[in-house]
Design goal:
two-stranded antiparallel ribbon, 11 helices, mainly alpha
Length: about 250
């Protein structure tokens, strides 16, 4: 027998949001343009003023438009910003249906891609910046795990910038933050915390050497191995199989 899903009522303001966002996708609206006035939107959508205002609040919260109190013109279409995307990705990454192993696997894929690009695109100045983050990581080992994590984040941010891909930067930043938030306390208080940090530093140094040599394949493989070694013990053995599959050449 066929199985049906519950029917959910879609509110009118959601339809307004969808229409405006679809107009942006189609290129009928572009950053810097203005939407019609609130009064005109009420007429065009044939809804109440409160419905239009709710739709505009959602669009503003999503970083799509900006409304100024007392502005006689309609809301302004804003240029794309990674901020709203970062917010939505963070919500997604924190839901219960997304497991730690899935997040780690995503990091292994994204970090590998970013590092592979960095090995091809980096300048001498950018390579020097990566090397400076290694110096900071080495010094942080004698401070605490928090300081080491901050230096580690600086390394990955430097690599992501070299990739010249804002999506990679944003996705890596979000997932890295969520993963560390889930298990940072366990790592910080682990009996072998210092050994883990030293091992991670060694892996990072190998990655930088591969980037220096322009060997993107080796750099990406090392990056994935580093993440696996650092995080795999925090997931159940059956879930590690997926992570190990990402280590294959």
């Amino acid at each position: 027998m066929a199985q049906f899903q519950p029917v959910h009522t879609v509110r009118a303001y959601q339809r307004i949001v969808e229409q405006i966002e679809e107009a942006l996708v189609r290129g009928e609206l572009s950053p810097g343009q203005r939407l019609p006035s609130e009064r005109e939107l009420v007429t065009q959508f044939a809804v109440s003023r409160s419905t239009v205002r709710e739709a505009l609040r959602v669009l503003e919260s999503n970083g799509v438009v900006r409304s100024r109190p007392g502005d006689p013109n309609g809301p302004e279409i804003l240029p794309f910003s990674p901020g709203p995307l970062r917010k939505q990705l963070t919500r997604l990454a924190r839901v219960d249906d997304l497991t730690l192993s899935e997040l780690i696997a995503f990091r292994m894929i994204m970090d590998g891609a970013a590092i592979q690009l960095a090995s091809r695109l980096r300048t001498d100045e950018q390579l020097a910046e990566m090397e400076q983050t290694l110096v900071a990581m080495r010094a942080a080992i004698d401070v605490d795990f928090t300081a080491f994590s901050e230096a580690d984040v600086a390394f990955h941010e430097a690599v992501a910038r070299v990739s010249r891909n804002s999506m990679l930067q944003t996705c890596n930043e979000v997932v890295r933050g969520v993963v560390l938030g889930l298990i940072s306390d366990k790592i910080a208080h682990a009996a072998n915390s210092r050994a883990l940090m030293l091992e991670s530093l060694g892996h990072h140094a190998e990655v930088v050497e591969a980037i220096r040599a322009g060997d993107g394949h080796a750099a990406a493989r090392l990056a994935r191995q580093n993440l696996y070694d650092y995080y795999s013990s925090y997931v159940a053995e059956p879930e590690r199989e997926t992570l190990r599959a990402l280590l294959d050449d």
